[in-house]
Each structure stands twice: as structure tokens, then as C-alpha cells.
Amino acid sequence: MYDRRLDAVIASADLGSFGKAAERLHISVPALVKQVNTFEREHHLTLFHRSRGGVEPTIAGEQFVEDARAIIRQCDEIVRRARAAEMGGDMPVRLGVSVLRSGKRILDLWQHGAARHGGSRLEIVPMVDDYAAFENVVRHLGEHVDVVVCAFMPQWWGDVCGTLRIEDQPLAVAVPRDHPLALRRRLSVSDLEGNRVRVIARGHGGNEDARDALESNGGIEVVDFEHYDLSVFNDCVECGDLLLSKPVWSDVHPGLVTVPVDWDFTMQYGVMHALEPSAHVRRFLDEVTELAAWDMSR
């Protein structure tokens, strides 16, 4: 319903790079650049400052991107309402999924408890695991995506979105399959001595207590990274580093084995939603709460 070149403009503004924007949209860099350039020429606009370091929206570009988002939201909402009317007025809840945020726990609950929930419909929306793209989704929950299922520290996201805890995920260590520790059923912190352990950087939404426990052991080399994405998992397999992880990620990479650790550190796992969710999303959250309680009582 709208000029799809707007997607290229918005992605470029979000990521500050034509290359990263092309990756997000699954098109080639030349194709994306052509979309942006032709749009600017047709409308006599300069939307970006271009440099070797990337792209940055001009003042006009910042205003344009903000207004373009509103147009896209309106178009999407028109289509959604039409589809809902066609199906008797039942609006689906759009669940964003990716490799790292698969939503499997919710989907399993939904399937096993089908007779118990109120019949909210789910629509699966694919996401990419690039952190900037994920953060953009979370900051705009209720627009293209209604809910995301993942592990989180509520205080990290408190002013951005709402969270619904389903369970606590115990923190574990993902070990390269050919590493001797991959054969162990459980690990202690002292077992990790002599290894490099990748841990999300302090102040980036991770469990700081787990980080403190690792840093306090002088025999463990703690290696910072800023955000979880698939490249972190790939790098650990390639170089033999261990990775602070969670059971929910056990199937992310076939070259890694998730091994429990003898400690009590956890992260909440559940649903992220808009700060003011719509009525049909609130109904879905109530149903998830009931299903999770039923599942725990079995």
C-alpha cells in the first residue's frame, strides 16, 4: 500500500549503514542504494549525509523518517483491520520470532493448552537477530509486532516496554562440542578456570551477579561483548571460547553444548509487550499467565 522504498530509507536511518540495512531487508547493497537514491531524486530530497563511516539522516531526513513510520503503521493497520473484519473481527496477536527469540516456549504452551486458552489467534512475524533491529522492534511494540518472547532483566527495559514473566531461566555455559567440558553433566565455577568465557558487557542488560562470580575467579578470563547475536555463537565455535548462555538457546548452534552450572543465577523469561497494550494483546497476556500457571501445576 506504500512505496516499499520507504523500508530502505528507514532501515538505513536505523542502522546508519546501507550495508547493514541491505542485510536487514535481505537484498543486495547496490539494490538498496538504488532504492534510496532514486527516491531522493524523484522527490528532490537529500535524506542522508554519506561518508565512509556510514550514513546519517539530514534534518529533513530525520523528519521524513518519523513521518514515514507513521504512514507505514497506518497502512499496516488498515490491512490488519480489513483482515480482522474478513475473519469476523478477531484480531491476531503478532508474535515476533527469530533464531534467538523463537517463542518456542509460548508456542508449546499454546499447543498443549489449546483447550484451556480463550482462543486468541497468533500471527508469526519473522525478525532478524541483529540487535539494532531487535531493539527497534521492542521500542515500537504494537506497531509491526505485538509481542516478543525472550529472556530479559525487567529493569533494563522498564521504560521501553512491559514484561510478563513466565519462568526463570537458569544461566548456563555453552561449550564448543569438541571441548573437554562439553562431556560434563554439570560445571562449577572452578571448572571454568583456564578458559575464556564470553559475557555480555556490564550495563548491557545481563546478569551482573553471574558476571561478578566469574570475574572474582582469577583463573577465568572474562571476555566482553555488547549484545547477543548469531555471530557470537559462531565465534565461540570457531575459537573455542565458552559463552554465558541459557537452556532456551540449547538448539541455537549445533557446535555448542549447553551445560548447567552450580549456581543460582537466573534471568526472567517471558513476554515483552507495549507499555500500553491493546485489548486483544491484554487478553493474550492473561491467557499466557493462566497457561503458565496450569503448566507449572502439572
From TrEMBL:
Belongs to the LysR transcriptional regulatory family. This is LysR family transcriptional regulator. Keywords: DNA-binding, Transcription, Transcription regulation. The keyword Transcription regulation applies. Residues 1-58 form the HTH lysR-type domain. PANTHER family: HTH-TYPE TRANSCRIPTIONAL REGULATOR CYNR (PTHR30346:SF28), TRANSCRIPTIONAL DUAL REGULATOR HCAR-RELATED (PTHR30346). The lineage of its organism: Bacteria, Bacillati, Actinomycetota, Actinomycetes, Bifidobacteriales. One of its GO terms (molecular function) is DNA binding. It holds the Pfam family HTH_1. It comes from Bifidobacterium lemurum. GO terms for cellular component: protein-DNA complex.
